[in-house]
UniProtKB/TrEMBL annotation:
Enzyme class: transferase
Any one of the GO CC terms: cytosol
Originating gene: glk
Predominant cellular place of this UniProt entry's protein: cytoplasm
Organism: Stenotrophobium rhamnosiphilum
Residues reported in the UniProt entry to bind ATP: 13-18
Protein name (record): Glucokinase
Amino acid sequence: MSTGAHKPLRLVADIGGSNARFGLLRDGAREPVECKTLPTGDFPNFVDAVERFLELSGSPHVTEAAVAIANPVTGDAIKMTNQHWAFSTEQARKHLHLDRLLMLNDFAALAMSLPHLASHELRQLGGGERVELGACALLGPGTGLGVSALLSAGEGRWVPLSGEGGHITVATADDYEAEIIAILRREFGHVSAERVLSGMGLCNLYRAVAQLAGRSPLTLTPAEVTQRGLSGEDADCAEALSLFCSLLGNAAGSLALTIGSRGGVYIGGGIVPRLGEYFHQSKFRARFEAKGRMSEYLIPIPAYVIHADNPALIGAAIALDAP
C-alpha cells in the first residue's frame, strides 16, 4: 500500500458580520491556500456562501471543515448577532456532504493562532517582554467586538476561552466619558462595550459627541468617521476616534487584570490595524495602565496589534487537528 497518498481536502472559514473568509487545507497542512473573501451580506445563508467559495476555487468537495464564526457556539443552532444568517450545524454538514463540520467562536479561533504568529505580524505597543507560556488576552473591534483569551495547558498545548466579553457593560474613567455614555444609554438602554468599540461604535460615539456639543450629527459610515477623524477635518469625528482608543485601552486593561495576561494583550479585528501610527500615539496605552493600585502590574505587560493575513483561518486549522 502506498504511503504517499494525499490526505483529504479540508476547508477553513472565518465568518464575520461583514466578510466571510475561506481557505483550503491540502495534504494535512495548517497553512490555508486559495484564500478568498466574500461579503457575508451577499448570501442568504451559510451554505450558499460555502458553495460559492468552492465553485470559485474549483474544489467541488471537501471532507471536513472548521468554521470560525462571530457568534456564540453553544449547540447545533447558530444565529449570528451582527448578520441575518441562522442555521443548523448538522443540517449544513449534511447539505455540504461533509464528514465533519466543526463550528467555533471566531475569537477563540483567532486566539488559537497567537502562538503561531511571526514577530513581523505583531507590532508591540508598550510593556516589556511577554512571559513565555503566560496567559494571553485578545480583543478586537470590527463589525462587533470580539473577546477571548488563551491559556497554556502545558506540553505545547493551548486552550482558548470562548465567551461574549464584547457585551459587558462599558466602563468610563471620567465625567466627560460618563456624559457620552449617558447619551447612548438613553438610546440603547444597556451600553455594552461593543456599542462603542466596533464599527457601529465609532458612529455611536460620533453622534454622542456631536449631540453633547449641541451640534446635529451627519449620517456617516464607520469608514467616514475614521477618515474624517484621522484627517482632522471634523472635530467631532476626531474626538470620537480619540474616545474609541481611550475606551479600548480601558477595556484591554480590565481584561488583562481579569485573565492575568502576562503573555500579552493582543488587538485584532478590522479597525485598529488600519489606524496605523495614530493608534500608537493615542491614549490607548496610558488608559491600559491607568488602574490605580494595579498599574504596576500592568506596566510590564506588552500589547500587540495583529497585522497578520487571515490568522483566524490558521486557528481554525489548528482546532480541526486538536484532540
